[in-house]
Design a protein that fits this description.
The protein is of the alpha+beta class and about 190 residues long. The protein has four helices and twelve strands.
Length: about 190
Amino acid sequence: MKKVSLTPAQGKLLCYPVTASMVTCADDDKQNIIAITFIAPVTTDPNCVMISVSPKRYSYDMIKNSGEFVVNIPGPELLYETQFTGRKSGRDVDKFKETGLTAVPAQAVKAPLIDECWGHVECKVIKTVDVGVHTLFIGEIVAASVTEGYFDNGIVLGEDKARLIQFLGGMKYGILDHGTKAPLTKDQV
């Protein structure tokens, strides 16, 4: 196959799609939602996830000061709300009020869950790493919850089950709503 060269910025797009999430945070009497697509599991002992947040973001200081965050996984019916929480600043608007999303208490952290999301991963920050214009917050998972029927030793995808918003870069999105099991050998293809 013939290959063509890409710029580093274009090369980054080869790493997409990534799951879009809405991360909630709280500090003192304030709470906020920030759309995050730079998110990934990073280790299994302890179980941790990483989110990447610019220090310019309103949520940055809330996460840094509280040492906690919740990754909320929305379905495609929440695409508008997900985009809104990524495009508007919590300095200017109450994102829960403006989107109509419902904050409910988490199990183990002060940051709230978003009730309308089907998955929730509660984290306590164990490490931060400054990389370029972002800070990586590595959070140990201290609690997690999911809509009943959406998990069976992994996410259960389907039209009436879990559906993931996949961020493709720019303003492009896709929906992941089914999966297949990969064969173990070429003979099983």
